[in-house]
Amino acid sequence: xxxxxxxxxxxxxxxxxxxxxxxxxxxxxxxxxxxxxxxxxxxxxxxxxxxxxxxxxxxxxxxxxxxxxxxxxxxxxxxxxxxxxxxxxxxxxxxxxxxxxxxxxxxxxxxxxxxxxxxxxxxxxxxxxxxxxxxxxxxxxxxxxxxxxxxxxxxxxxxxxxxxxxxxxxxxxxxxxxxxxxxxxxxxxxxxxxxxxxxxxxxxxxxxxxxxxxxxxxxxxxxxxxxxxxxxxxxxxxxxxxxxxxxxxxxxxxxxxxxxxxxxxxxxxxxxxxxxxxxxxxxxxxxxxxxxxxxxxxxxxxxxxxxxxxxxxxxxxxxxxxxxxxxxxxxxxxxxxxxxxxxxxxxxxxxxxxxxxxxxxxxxxxxxxxxxx
Length: 373
Fold this sequence. Notes:
alpha/beta; Aspartate Aminotransferase, domain 1; 2 domains; 13 helices; disordered C terminus
């Protein structure tokens, strides 16, 4: 007995963790700092930590009330109905729900390249095919309606990422509206805003609700997560904001109790902890500016909680930095073998990462030579 043919499926390659690297190198975990997975350098919202302790004794019950409470709170935050909030086990869970709700066998999904691998993975899990549109390095990975529409061919789902991972670029709402207007009536445009709190952009939720001068649309959905700005990556909590017409589909595609009791209670508390989010965003802005100013290589402008750096040979540079105690993301798996991605850390972590990278580049004889590429 064998599983179905999975030869077209690729395994998701996550950033390496401190414990994993420390064991591999036979060193103490305290020697390392991890800036590979775009996690919150300040940890979880303190309010969420309190909520987790208080909710621990209730995990013997299914999270029906907590699920409803969080859906209502998120809906209030976005000024939509609670039925438009599809809670999920992380943003990737919400991607799966949208795949289930839309894809028929052999439908196609249009995804950015480079981009988040799980868009295509979810499509293939649900018997869809994957097509790509390119974000060009020569154009600083600019996102535009022209780039998407030139590749579009009646695809059922079109994924946009704003801010984009791993480049940090965003796409204006007017460009998103153009994409939605010029694609077929049965095409859903999905805007992944996992890093939205860090960007100086309005959310595409405005397109669903007809705000800010836009007409209301029923062909746009927005993804959000509690993993980044709220610091709850380990709890796996995310959601989609869907058109009102899609509300009833949730009950037919979600897993029973899509988010856990602890995740929902922590999410409720984190949602109200504006101070923690503000501190996180400020740290991110400072770190992005510091890295762009002090790294001796080309650093692309970013609106995420990370920067993309051209280092010439990503694998060798990431390995050398890791051996020096700083874990960053080799972007070869994104199709960018000359780039690394560095998460915005605390002031101390960011300065250490910059110093370590510059030392590695100097030892390799590259340094500022690549800053013009």
